[in-house]
Amino acid sequence: MLLLTKKYSPYFLFILSSFFMLSCVKDVDFDQAETLKIEPVVDVSLLYFDLQASQVGFIPNNDVNPYSVQDTTKLEIFSKPFLEENLKEATFDFEFLNSIPRIFNAKIVLYDNAYNELDEIEILVNMPKVTTTVPYNDSEIQKIKNMAYMGIELMLMPGTPMLDPNSSGELLLKSSGTFFMSIDAD
After folding, report:
1. How far apart, in whole angstroms, are the C-alpha atoms of residue 168 and residue 100?
2. What pLDDT digit, counting tens, does each position of 17-65 carry?
3. The pTM is what?
4. d(C-alpha 21, C-alpha 151), whole Å
5. How far apart are CA 111 and CA 131, in angstroms?
6. b vs e for 23-52, b when ≥16 Cβ sit within 10 Å of the residue's Cβ?
């Protein structure tokens, strides 16, 4: 017969209690795997540009004549069937940083594959920093699912000072999209 001394008795109790805790088995419900739902969130950079005041300064009479520049970008992520099936919500964030002492009007347009306009977002850049968030919920998400291109038209509004090739400052645009998915494993 093994007699436990006071020296070994705390260790024995620890080992014994560990054995009982580790030997317990909890029932596992494997039917839960059929109702698995994954909800990932994906952040993607969309549009970016850097317009220098000196570039605008080459436009004659830019204090009265509107100056505009346009660009369109194909967004490959939206051509995947995975997005069509699983996208539930989306948010676009636009940030303009303007150190040019003039006001700009930005028009962001979402197009489908045939260049049909799906949505238009107008942003007046009348401060050094302008941020805009555009949400697309359940009722508007089809616009995003049909989107293939994103375009921007940037217009310099009439005003002063007139810019010349030596003018300093820049207009930066950074934008991103946050896409909320829901993937059911039924």
Report:
1. 7
2. 655 555 555 666 666 556 677 888 889 888 888 989 988 877 777 777 7
3. 0.76
4. 62
5. 22
6. eeeeeeeeeeeeeeeeeeeeeeebbeeebe
